[in-house]
Amino acid sequence: MNLKSTLLLLTLSAVIWSCKKKSEAPTEDVVSQEVLSQIKALGFSTDGVSVTDGGYLVEGDIILTPENLKGMEQTHNLIHANEEHYRTTNLVSTGTGTRTLTVRLNTTQANFVAATDEAIRRYNALNLRVRFQRITSGTPNINIVTFFQVSNTLGSAGFPSGGNPFGTINMNTYWYTPSIAVNALATTIAHEMGHCIGFRHTDYMNRAFSCGTGGNEGASTVGAVYIPGTPTGPSAGSWMLACGSTASSFNRPFTSADQTALNFVY
Q1: Is residue 173 exposed (0-12), middle (13-18) or buried (19+ Cβ within 10 Å)?
Q2: Do 63 and 5 touch, CB atoms closer than 8 A?
Q3: Backbone phi, then psi, for 243, in 5-degree steps?
Q4: Which among 219, 168, 218 has a CA at the least distance from the CA of 192?
Q5: Which residues contact 6 (CB under 8 A, 6 or more apart)?
Q6: Partner of 13 for a Cys bridge, out of 1, 49, 55, 230, CB 3.0 to 4.6 A?
Q7: Whole-prediction pTM
Q8: What span, in angstroms and rounded, lies between the C-alpha atoms of 194 and 197?
């Protein structure tokens, strides 16, 4: 999730593509025109694309791996509308029942622990076919790792692959110090978890709605599938809006439209 440009000290970034990222800052390698064309074809903005460990950071908080660029299905048409809810063409497989995804933190920072538990509680309260459980040892489905970088990125993640969630959520401790309120941090973690299980930004069609600036993240025939039953206008307060805040009052629990989207997909 990205920090809102008009409230630089109050915003968060919504990265949502798949690949692992180490604790150091992304490299400054030049992104080839071929890769930019692939990213655009998937429906993502090519503005500010950078190389990161395992892939490419797009739209401030989404990681796309080379596997994503080659393997995302191309069977869905993008619906041009306003700020609706969108999913990717890649989702987590649950079979005929429920599937529990394990989540592990690489930090014992108290507000991170409490925020992760709160984000998990928000999902599990909906009784979806995908459930989450925090673990303290063993190999998780999703690692939440911290890094320090002077940037507007609050966190980043990726999309599912092969029926499994994206395996890493990166959280920027430049913003998320021990004094940050639990609900503000939980909102960003829940947002990145949303990317890991296949959700795109709610304001896909106009990032200015939550970020203050920016437009359509990129029109294409793939990469963003409208979720029926969600608003055809701006969806205020959605957990998947592109930009947010680290203010102590900032909190985006699931709205009724968010719940509709989550229940439709899972």
Answers
A1: middle
A2: no
A3: -125, 150
A4: 168
A5: 211, 212, 213
A6: 1
A7: 0.74
A8: 5
